[in-house]
Automatic annotation (TrEMBL), chain A:
GO terms for molecular function: ATP binding; hydrolase activity. This is Kinase A inhibitor. InterPro entries: CT_C_D, Cyclophilin-like_dom_sf, PxpB. It comes from the Bacteria. It comes from Mucilaginibacter galii. The keyword Hydrolase applies. The keyword ATP-binding applies. SUPFAM superfamilies: Cyclophilin-like, PH0987 N-terminal domain-like. Residues 11-221 form the Carboxyltransferase domain. Keywords: ATP-binding, Hydrolase, Nucleotide-binding.
């Protein structure tokens, strides 16, 4: 199902459904792929085709959604919607390469670590033979990269956690985790945007709303953003809450 | 309103926020939702109420023009059966009951003008996981009161005027159900990881019956049947999935994603259900057995475009009756 192309294509186009094409840029997690996908995302929004609707970036892919009724009526060359869209996107690559590297925003997320906000902080410290303070320091001194948003609304897949903090998931998931909870699972860290069940080790909580339907941009984070966690005290946490 | 098991307000869903992991939501059986809308003179994408099975009731507090389509229930006022797929005028004060019928699982109730709930993130659909959209971001509860938007289309006004009076009134015509309604053969296009599975698994997938387990809801259906075996223990990086994507979980079991599914997933995708057969899937209930049949992506696209054209023509057909 590879799209025909005249030059070295940096992706393979796959059929996802009648109304979506998935472009596969590689098979690994890397900042290089993230940057390629971010550039392509900017380019398709800047040069949309008739019927274009939206995109969904993945770790190594970007999926392009469209209205087949509008695409088939468009003047795009090709016998069917998949070919029309895949060929158009292949042609768009040069424009994507020409894009300035749009660096994502740097988002600071305040986190109250430990105690009722992070009931698993001590366990994460014990498993990794660290003190709780060292866990906080390691977790809040890294700069994390948002690779993609998925799982539940506003959930960011972050890369860049210090491997000294790696921790297995809890044996039995909690039935409800408070929104804003900051967790560790395996080599990943992340923030729960909504109250959901979950098996991650919870080391802290942010007072920020990671997802709010009332905002123009409901998700606080987008693919390509950089994130730092800033430790705050319980009283600072409460001040955020009264402001919100 | 007494909503029964699970009733939510849905429209055609929201795609604009998929990149922020907001599920598309929308009617599980889009075709029935659109037919119910078209029957009352709506454009097709207005908000409808999706009832799951029967046991629900609602009372008309004013004169209303409604219609219903789908499966799982027949609407009755006392012992008077209201016919599906056509408009019905109901004078104020009547209570409508949904009475169980075994033909499916979801019934769509449209009202002239569409149900009046706010547009949230571009859609009126209820997204239960994020508690947004629909009626206050939640499933309907006993005692909820919903109204319709004031602005009726010219054709809705004509239907209303033609049917209004002291009595329950329906026209003689009906919208025929879409071809294939009720069949249990689901057409699929091979998915991106189709070739990860060995030949016996593929043969099973395309020949054995699969049964909906009790673990089935608006997010997805767990299917019971032969397990899939993989050639290689390759890992898939999380990437976009859509309703109709059939994932293979760690133990080889199949999960068919439905309207409220996550926007991304990391399980290999063996197949993608043809969009025209998603309404059939939306009417399945636990215990139902289905078979998968392979078609090409070109066939799936042609079927989709044909169905869109057919639904478009229905709007004109209804207009021509008045």
């Amino acid at each position: 199902m590879q799209a025909p192309n005249n030059f070295q294509s940096s992706f393979t186009a796959h059929y996802l459904s009648e109304y979506a094409v998935t472009l596969e840029f590689g098979e690994e997690i890397s900042e290089d792929l993230l940057q390629k996908i971010s550039r392509f995302n900017t380019a398709i929004h800047q040069y949309p085709f008739s019927g274009f609707q939206t995109t969904v970036p993945g770790y190594a892919t970007i999926s392009v959604f469209f209205d087949p009724v509008l695409v088939i009526r468009s003047g795009l060359p090709g016998q069917d919607c998949f070919t029309k869209v895949a060929d158009y996107l292949t042609g768009l690559q040069q424009r994507a390469i020409d894009q300035d590297v749009k660096s994502g925003s740097l988002v600071t997320i305040p986190v109250c670590y430990g105690n009722i906000y992070g009931p698993d902080l001590d366990e994460v410290a014990r498993v990794n033979q660290l003190t709780a303070l060292q866990v906080i320091e390691l977790h809040s001194s890294a700069v994390y990269k948002v690779f993609m948003i998925g799982f539940v609304p506003g959930f960011a897949y972050l890369g860049g956690m210090n491997s000294a903090l790696a921790n297995p998931r809890k044996l039995s998931p909690r039935p409800a985790i408070a929104p804003g909870s900051v967790g560790i699972a395996g080599k990943q860290t992340g923030v729960y945007p909504l109250q959901t069940p979950g098996g991650w080790q919870i080391i802290g909580q942010t007072p920020l709303k990671m997802f709010a339907a009332t905002r123009a941009q409901p998700s606080l984070l987008s693919a390509g953003d950089e994130v730092v966690f800033k430790p705050i005290s319980a009283s600072e946490f409460k001040q955020y809450n009264t402001r919100a | 309103m007494n909503p029964g098991l699970l009733s939510t307000v849905q429209d055609m869903g929201r795609r604009q926020y998929l990149s922020q992991a907001v599920p598309v939501s929308g009617a599980m059986d889009m075709a029935s939702a659109r037919i119910a809308n078209i029957a009352v003179g709506n454009a097709g994408d207005e908000a409808v109420i999706e009832f799951t099975y029967a046991a629900a009731t609602f009372t008309a507090e004013t004169n209303i023009l409604i219609s219903y389509a789908g499966g799982g229930a027949v609407l009755k006022i006392d012992n008077h059966i209201l016919l599906a797929n056509r408009p019905v005028f109901i004078p104020a004060g009547n209570t409508v009951r949904l009475v169980n019928d075994s033909s499916g699982s979801r019934t769509y109730l449209a009202i002239a003008g569409g149900w009046n709930v706010p547009v949230v993130l571009g859609s009126r659909s209820t997204c239960l996981v994020a508690a947004l959209g629909g009626y206050q971001g939640r499933a309907l509860q006993v005692g909820d009161v919903l109204d319709s938007l004031d602005q009726l289309s010219p054709i809705s006004k004509k239907i209303f005027d033609a049917l209004k009076g002291e009595q329950i009134n329906q026209p003689k015509w009906t919208i025929a159900p879409l071809p294939g309604t009720g069949t249990k053969t689901i057409r699929v296009v091979p998915g991106m990881e189709f070739t990860w599975f060995n030949a016996p698994s593929i043969v099973n997938f395309l020949s054995a019956p699969y049964q909906l387990s009790m673990r089935s809801n608006r997010m997805g259906y767990h299917l019971e049947g032969p397990l899939m075996q993989r050639y290689a223990a390759k890992e898939l990086l999380s990437t976009a999935v859509v309703p109709g994507t059939i994932q293979v979980t760690g133990n080889g079991g199949l999960v068919l994603l439905m309207a409220d599914c996550q926007t991304t997933g990391g399980y290999p995708r063996i197949a993608q259900v043809a969009a025209v057969d998603m309404p059939l899937c939306g009417q399945l209930k636990p215990g139902d057995a289905i078979n998968f049949k392979e078609i090409s992506r070109q066939e799936a696209e042609i079927l989709y475009l044909e169905q869109e054209q057919y639904l478009h023509q229905l709007t004109y057909a209804v207009q021509s009756k008045f």
